[in-house]
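Worked example

This section walks through a single chain of length 493. The input is the sequence exactly as stored; nothing has been trimmed or padded.
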Amino acid sequence: MKDKRIAIIGAGISGLASAIRCARMGNVVDLYEKNDKPGGKLSELRLGDYRFDTGPSLFTLPHLLENLFSFCEEPAERYFTCQKLETTCRYFWQDGTVITAYNDPVRFAQEVELNTGEPKHNITRFLNHSRDLYDLTNQVFIFNAFPDLNVILSQNIFKFLSKGRKMEPFTSMHQSNLKRFQEDRIIQLFDRYATYNGSNPYTAPATLNVIAHLEHNLGAYFPEKGMFQIGIALKSLADRVGVRFFFNAPVQSIVLDGKKVKGIVCSDQEVGYDVVVSAIDVHTLYSKLLPRKMAPERLWESERSSSAVIFYWGIRGSFPGLDLHNILFSGDYKEEFEHIFNKKTVYGDPTVYIFISSKKVQDDAPPGCENWFVMVNAPANYGQDWDAHLQQIRTAVLQKIRKMLNRDVEPLIEAEQIADPRTIEGKTASAFGSIYGISSNDPFAAFYRHPNKRKQIRGLYFAGGSVHPGGGIPLCLASAEIVAGMISKSKTY
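Given that input, the structure is written out below as tokens.
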């Protein structure tokens, strides 16, 4: 399909990547974004002399980004550079245990055994299992449209079905990890990966143990200038291949002619297009841009993923004991998730994530200072009194940091801004502020995700973290490649 007019809605990672691929294939591509800059959740915030990445903070599978530049015959290093981290995270427990998660799996296993007594062969065995899960599922669930007849008939699906028990779809992540490890602290460490797609390790399927492979076996990376550099690089590449950008331009509706896309309405003006790619939250799409009745019924019934409360703190001081990524664990992980998904509130002893980009990008904070992105997992926004909750959450976070790091950070905060599920929803159009669309707290969650194309609406395609294959930078890049491939092969759009 060549020389067609394509509108992309949303300039997040999936929208940018979809636009780039479609433009490179010879189409006229217009990208509409309601905000004044690209990046979507991958944005930035400046508070005085402090700069913060506001969204995703961990970067894996960098070859997916490099492949996009190769597709355009552009050298990636001209736009973007990143380094493989020596350590992926530093973990803290209330009993004083500290574990540095080295990028080298062997060194990581030794570190775990040294600090907790968990036999290193258990770590190695688990990471090998995680690799097997990835090899088993990546071509079925990540890099292909699903369900797709060609995929179903391929050898990959038969391999998948023949070894399906290994995926443990009807065992929770926690139950699986309980059998694999002796130490509660290590069970908690690997249970944490359910939060990478906004889910609950006590109910989400053990299949999600595949996530650990990306970080521990393949490695974590960090852009030379911070995570926002990814969005800037993709915007530059999009300009290079001829994508036209319209910022501060929220799309009001998608225009249909029967069951066929006809165009969009923006600024009260109808603009005709052959194809429209939605790269925004799919729940928001059907709620605001299409008749709600056109949505799959399951979209309204599925449980939402978690959201977050984030404190952006400019800290007047340095903490040598902290790394780029840090986790201060809750003393009762099960109760924390009970609060998030059932009680719809934040637990009084939350797990605290601290991301300090100035550890790698010195200009992100003044000399001798640090920029702290401090996040706790939170429920989606169902009308809770967040104004009342925020002060309680802030107090709990400060108390936890003081207790576990043995230092009071509150007097050191000289710049502050707070994000909660309401502001996340408003800024990113993520319905209810849930960061990953629907949760994966169900054995069939992968099948419930909205597909990248529906035959009920010709010419409309879906990319981004709320549809197949899921959330996070790698999966958003994968969804863009799937969508562009569909468009290139379609004769009826």
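What to look for: The radius of gyration is 22 Å.
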